[in-house]
Amino acid sequence: xxxxxxxxxxxxxxxxxxxxxxxxxxxxxxxxxxxxxxxxxxxxxxxxxxxxxxxxxxxxxxxxxxxxxxxxxxxxxxxxxxxxxxxxxxxxxxxxxxxxxxxxxxxxxxxxxxxxxxxxxxxxxxxxxxxxxxxxxxxxxxxxxxxxxxxxxxxxxxxxxxxxxxxxxxxxxxxxxxxxxxxxxxxxxxxxxxxxxxxxxxxxxxxxxxxxxxxxxxxxxxxxxxxxxxxxxxxxxxxxxxxxxxxxxxxxxxxxxxxxxxxxxxxxxxxxxxxxxxxxxxxxxxxxxxxxxxxxxxxxxxxxxxxxxxxxxxxxxxxxxxxxxxx
Length: 327
Prior knowledge:
By secondary structure, the chain is mainly α. It is 75% helix and 0% strand. The protein is built from 13 helices and no strands. Helix 9 packs antiparallel against helix 10. The longest helix has 41 residues. The termini are far apart.
């Protein structure tokens, strides 16, 4: 119930939001795919904005999740988070490298070239790894009490680094939402107290109005560097609306939870599926393309998860047998 709520976003809330964010990013990628092939999508260009919304949500949830769990104080927690991103990324990239490369050219050297060639399409994975590493370093140097402020400075710093390296704006116009998530987690009780007894629709209408204003200002001025501040502000407004809604209602969709839990796999696989489709004479309808691309992606995620599950069980059984033999 609303009165007994003790946390802004539960684990299931976060997974449901991740599920929504994953679908938003996938839809944006589908439209981007059509534009790159020369199709005129008209007003459909607006769907490209959903990718930015989804990415902001991912950054926000990552920062929120790390702080609300206080996981950084647990042994090897950040290492497990880094491994949880890096290992699936390397494994899946290697699988698609084998699929996309002639047999005679499959070797480690060409695989590294493949990774370098596709590094910009995997920008989110690289950015979140850099943020995770920075999070742990800030914790070691400044401790838990100063973690939020030191991490904010770190995120601003790497943002300027991305600008100096002349990377695309997507590298630096959403990652500050990670710090927003951290602050929200640490002011959890105050936020619940403020929002829970206030009018849901009034707050959401105000938040949505400001989100639209900042989004429009960003779109109209996005060629100008400082306009990226509007995307960050629109992301904050969007998170406000989502938190406010989640405090009053629960998403109970098992499908969204599954998508949220497998969001990283879907992100990596879906991008490659679209790249493979781009070499074929495929559909020019974004909605059908979106559905077919996701269905293929979901099938591969299920197969990958099944194989990993079987391998982990086999490894567990093998370790038990070795242990018994030693005894």
